[in-house]
Design a protein that fits this description.
globular, three-stranded antiparallel β-sheet, 15 strands, seven-stranded parallel β-sheet, 2 domains, DNA-binding, 10 helices, Carb_Metab_HTH_regulators, DeoR family transcriptional regulator, transcription, single chain, Rossmann fold, alpha/beta, Tscrpt_reg_HTH_DeoR_CS
Length: 255
């Protein structure tokens, strides 16, 4: 198969699946990693995609579809690390904190364990549990339920019932997108109800969104943008958006 034919198929698969993995392309075409690497480099240079660790996503990701966890773990990571450092300013020693499943909240967990000795963590995320399980002063409460293997999250009726028992001091809410009109939206169908329960029960909710999420409208509404205490994002946020949200009485912290 000629390179041009592979390129066409890669573009078609990317449009259909919203993300592609290099290992799958190697198997599909029966070619080496180096061949796929060159294909993706060329398509990136032509503006068709953005290369990430292990594969590629569209140049402008479609947030109306859920991007697989292995891909999300490699995109906008500097932005997520930056906002995590900002977000933990709102945590105090001994607090109870709810964390929903997301690569952003996994970064939050990594920062928390460097700054606090005693916290209670409520989560339905296996990566977050794995990150904090070695902290002797932490009480880590993991919900019961059914594991989403691709996302390493826990969902279902048992999860929702269990989560409803807890009233955290603070909930860090992640999301797939946010606009003033649609509010906070998410693509993880099985996780949204748990997110809503954590939000309803928490004393305070702080929304976490790297700058790429603003202006994006995803599948399911979680709550209105004004229903959280504030948003925390990174310094790449469009300052015009900050002003627009501010005029609606919504605070965005980015430094």
């Amino acid at each position: 198969m000629f390179a041009e034919q592979r390129h066409q198929i890669i573009i078609q698969k990317l449009n259909q699946d919203k993300s592609i993995r290099a290992s799958e392309l190697m198997e599909h075409f029966g070619v080496s990693f180096e061949t796929i690497r060159r294909d993706l480099e060329y398509l990136e240079s032509e503006g068709y995609l953005r290369r990430v660790h292990g594969g590629a996503i569209p140049r402008d990701p479609d947030y109306s579809h859920e991007i697989p966890l292995p891909i999300r773990e490699s995109i906008f990571m500097e932005e997520k690390k930056e906002l995590a450092q900002i977000a933990v300013r709102y945590v105090t020693e001994g607090m109870s904190v709810a964390l929903d499943p997301s690569t952003t909240n996994t970064e939050i967990a990594k920062v928390l364990k460097t700054k606090f000795d005693r916290l209670t963590i409520i989560t339905n995320s296996l990566p977050i549990v794995n990150e904090l399980v070695t902290m002797p002063g932490y009480t880590v409460i993991m919900t019961g339920g059914v594991i989403r293997h691709e996302e390493l999250s826990i969902i279902g009726d048992l999860t929702e019932e269990f989560t409803s028992r807890f009233h955290a001091d603070l909930f860090f809410m992640s999301m797939s997108g946010v606009t003033l009109e649609a509010g906070i939206t998410d693509n993880a169908i099985g996780e949204v109800q748990v997110k809503k329960i954590m939000h309803a029960n928490a004393k305070r909710t702080i929304a976490l969104a790297d700058s790429s999420k603003f202006g994006q409208n995803s599948l399911i509404k979680v709550c209105g943008a004004s229903e959280v205490e504030r948003f925390v994002t990174d310094s790449n946020i469009d300052k015009k958006l900050v002003d627009q949200f501010s005029k609606s009485g919504i605070d965005i912290v980015y430094k």
